[in-house]
Amino acid sequence: MLFTYQLITVTYLAIPVFASSASATLLTPENKQRIELAVWKYAVDAPLLLETINWFRDVTQNSRESAAIAQLSRLQFMQAQLETDKDRRLQLFENCVATADRALALNADNVAGLFWKVAAMGKMAEESGILNALKMLRPMEKMLLQVVALDEKYENAGGHRALGRMYHQLPGFPLSFGSNQKALKHLMRAHELFPRDVITRVFYAEVLYDVGKIEEARKHADFVLTAPIADEDALEYAEYVNIALNIVRKTGGSGIKLGNF
Q1: How much is the pLDDT for 165?
Q2: What does the H/E/C string look like for the chain?
Q3: Residue range 50-54: mean pLDDT, rounded
Q4: Are 171 and 180 within 8 A, CB to CB?
Q5: Would you say 118 and 150 are in contact if contact means Cβ atoms under 8 Å apart?
Q6: Where are the domains of the chain?
Q7: Looking at residues 78-88, what average pLDDT do you find?
Q8: What is the largest CA-CA distance in the chain?
Q9: pLDDT tens readout for residues 193-242
Q10: pLDDT in tens, 178-191
Q11: pLDDT above 90: residue 1
Q12: Which among 66, 65, 63, 77 is positioned nearest to 104, based on CA atoms?
């Protein structure tokens, strides 16, 4: 999929501060901290994630606050990522999409709602067969372009990063709308905005290698392999480390020492 979480220092508050009126936000600083902690630790503390989802589902049950509902879809995406059973995983991603749609029905320009809906759709496309995937691609592209237009920095330039990955992975015309040039444009911009983002660097390296910019691709792959990775991110980042290793092998190998692996 597609997504990077920065290390945060927060104190977990067992008793959140809820909105006391219809005009108050559910996303109080305390509630945001609780959500961010669950997102950061989701791969190493599934019980905390599930507890947070159950709590925030209750909090937002009758809410018309688009931003708050979008955060529930974000949490549900993390839950689906951890599920090992394919059918159950697809159902959880569908739940994420449904929740994001609730948020978008209240505010069609909700960046978080758009982003996490696309992220879930991308995972569903990977697992649901080519025909279903093809139906999702153009709507996904449209939503990601909307994310970039509204807030190109959201989720470490996640809109640019996802578009770059999509354009690189898809075949070009006439089969589909893949384009290495478009991929380079978006990944270059993501790198400009967040030069230390590991996922952006490894996707960028892949495209650079494919267009013949071998030395530049190797530089980004080496960065990924030497980057310090927090324990909370190790499971998610393993995929990207493997991509970087593959690029290193194709460019002659190296005695480079892996960051945390």
Answers
A1: 96
A2: CCCCCCCCCCCCCCCCCCCCCCCCCCCCHHHHHHHHHHHHCCCCCHHHHHHHHHHHHHHHCCCCCHHHHHHHHHHHHHHHHHCCCHHHHHHHHHHHHHHHHHHHHHCCCCHHHHHHHHHHHHHHHHHCCHHHHHHHHHHHHHHHHHHHHHCCCHHHHHHHHHHHHHHHHCCCCCCCCCCHHHHHHHHHHHHHHCCCCHHHHHHHHHHHHHCCCHHHHHHHHHHHHHCCCCHHHHHHHHHHHHHHHHHHHHCCCCCCCCCCC
A3: 98
A4: no
A5: no
A6: 26-116
A7: 96
A8: 62
A9: 999 999 999 999 999 999 999 999 999 999 999 999 888 888 888 999 99
A10: 999 999 999 999 99
A11: no
A12: 66
How far is it, in rounded angstroms, from Cα 31 to Cα 19? 10
Residue whose entry in the numeric block shows the structure tokens 């480079």: 256
Instruction: Work out the number of other CB atoms within 10 angstroms of the CB of residue 224.
Output: 26
- The first and second tokens of residue 148, run together, are 């970039």
Least Cα distance to 118 among 206, 3, 205, 4 occurs for 3
Going by pLDDT thresholds of 50, 70 and 90, the confidence category of residue 12 is very low
- pTM, two decimals, is 0.86
